[in-house]
Automatic annotation (TrEMBL):
<protein>
    <submittedName>
        <fullName>CHD3 protein</fullName>
    </submittedName>
</protein>
<dbReference type="InterPro" id="IPR012957">
    <property type="entry name" value="CHD_C2"/>
</dbReference>
<dbReference type="Pfam" id="PF08074">
    <property type="entry name" value="CHDCT2"/>
</dbReference>
<feature type="domain" description="CHD C-terminal 2">
    <location>
        <begin position="58"/>
        <end position="194"/>
    </location>
</feature>
Amino acid sequence: EEVKAEKEPKLEARTNGRRDDKAEKPRFMFNIADGGFTELHTLWQNEERAAISSGKLNEIWHRRHDYWLLAGIVLHGYARWTDIQNDGAFGVINEPFKGEASKGNFLEMKNKFLARRFKEQLRRAAYLNMTQDPSHPAMALNTRFAEVECLAESHQHLSKESLAGNKPANAVLHKVLNQLEELLSDMKADVTRLPATLSRIPPIAARLQMSERSILSRLA
């Protein structure tokens, strides 16, 4: 299931006429079935067959797209669908939706598909009814970040109005800035507690209630 994202290193001519291997960049790769979470193998086989027979490897969603979707989540964070879609490195996940781009609810449809597909990746976790603890510092940090983002985006017009001499807008702007400062202070405290909390998280095998042997046999 591992995919190598980087091409083989090129050979470069040296000043003495000899050629030498260029230093190879670290390759980005991970197993999309790691930890026994993913149980989409049958679906992947059907999608792969359809993609190959039609010659539309990019247009039909299959495990290649799942790989880059999960890679985007690793880089940008959970549910940051728009950030992932706008990142050129993960452009392949936009290909299956190009035929629907003219529809009015195109973005909503695409984000719902990505969210549903990601949940399908976690079939094993869903089967065990595993959910994130809302009191966990990582979850609190995520919630506060969403609040900061929402507050900033919904009040971004206030700065222009305040500069234009609008006194009510200026008063609201100061209140918003105070709220942002408090949220950022809380986030700083969450970040401070995070390393100790993460170090106490049990391994994947324990959380899935599976031994390493059973995980390997499932992946095989």
